[in-house]
From TrEMBL:
SUPFAM superfamilies: HIT-like (SSF54197). It comes from the Bacteria. A motif (Histidine triad motif) lies at residues 100-104. PANTHER family: HISTIDINE TRIAD HIT PROTEIN (PTHR23089). It comes from Nocardioides astragali. Residues 9-115 form the HIT domain. This is HIT domain-containing protein. Pfam families: HIT. Coiled coil: none annotated.
Length: 116
């Protein structure tokens, strides 16, 4: 059983209750295209278990972030992005809007956006 919050949009994507453009998934995490892309390639990687931010996920089990980075590398390279950025926002003050740990995977010529 995974840890879920019934009010969380990313938990609803994990469970399939709301649709997403899925790029890859495994037992630990799911990756899908960001609804509002900030780079030519912009995916999100969302660990299956609901924690509010990366530090909370790491405190629960450091392997959560390791699995997420591995899936990010897989989906970036599958889309032809050998080079990419990973961004993790923590807190509303730097723009975190969804309080479920997620990695932004940014690739392509405009991958250096400062908007994330
Ligand atoms: P944050 O600002 O919290 O780091 O990033 C949240 C990201 O999730 C944003 O880039 C936003 O576009 C994306 N997002 C929010 N809701 C949805 C959704 O329902 N579907 C998808 N695919 N992306 C979403
Ligand atoms: Zn959640």
């Amino acid at each position: 059983m995974s840890i879920a919050d019934p009010d969380c949009v990313f938990c609803k994507i994990v469970s399939g209750d709301i649709p997403a453009d899925v790029l890859g998934r495994n037992e630990h995490a799911i990756s899908f295209k960001d609804l509002n892309p900030q780079a030519p390639f912009h995916a999100l990687v969302v660990p299956v278990d609901h924690y509010a931010n990366a530090a909370a996920s790491a405190a629960a089990d450091p392997a959560i972030l390791g699995h997420a980075v591995a899936l990010a590398d897989e989906v970036a390279k599958a889309a032809g992005n050998d080079d990419y950025r990973l961004v993790i926002n923590t807190g509303a003050g730097v723009g975190q809007t969804v309080l479920h740990t997620h990695l932004h995977v940014l690739g392509g010529a405009s991958g250096m956006t400062e908007s994330l």
